[in-house]
Structures are given as C-alpha cells and as structure tokens.
Specification:
By secondary structure, the chain is an alpha+beta fold. It is built from two helices and five strands.
Amino acid sequence: MSEPEAAPLPAAEPAAAPAPLPAPEKRSPIVRLTSWFTGLSGRGKLRVAILAIVAIVAPIALYNGLDDPGRAKAGDCMAGQNEDDLRVVDCSDAAAEWTVLTRLDDKSEADHNEAACSAFPATEASYFQSDSNGDDGLILCLGPK
C-alpha cells in the first residue's frame, strides 16, 4: 500500500499590514488640565482648589506683612517719614533711618504722647498702631539709626 499523497497547500498570501493608528489628538495644556480636573471627585476638586488658593495667597500675605511696623521690636531698623511710609527694613539697607528703641504694647492712642517715650532720651519720633479691634495697640519709640 502506498501512502496517500498530501494535497499541496495553497500559497500563503502575504499578511496585510495593520492599519496605522490614528495620530494622537493634540490638545493644549489647558484642555488637558481641565479634563484632568473634571475627572476628579468632588472632594478631590475641593482639595485642589484649597491647595491652589493657599499656594497663591499665603506667599502674598506673608510678603505684605513682613515690613509691617506692628512686627517691629527693639533693635529693628525702620524707614519712612510718616505713618503710611513707615516700614521695617534691614539695618544694612541704605533706606534705614530709624532704630526702634523700645516697643510699648497694650497702649491706647491716648497714651501716645510725649511722656510715652520719655524713658528713652534718644527718642526723636514715635509711632502708634492700634490692634485689629481698634482698641489698644502699640507705641514704637524711634531714635536715629
């Protein structure tokens, strides 16, 4: 007996090349950010909003308060000739005109008179700042730098 002959296989056709993938959609960074934000949960959105506010507001508030006369203490230097211009500066700053001789806390505006700084004979000027409630505040006795 003879073995049956195997039928010839049909010639393989070359595989078709896969269709090219579509190019990724180019979106602006703003669109990508907003689509990322919209995918967050409500609590996640609140956290991102709070973080953004703190990241923007805190440095501005900190910077604006650094030279506030209300932060001055004895030995600090100040610049300015009136209430609106008076600010704390570094003593090496060329604008420094005054040295804080003392700081008197818990004083009223009525206490801000010539006698307030009489214990410091080098006093050439004084400054009063009320607290946020408008009640008592502080008096700075200023001498020349």
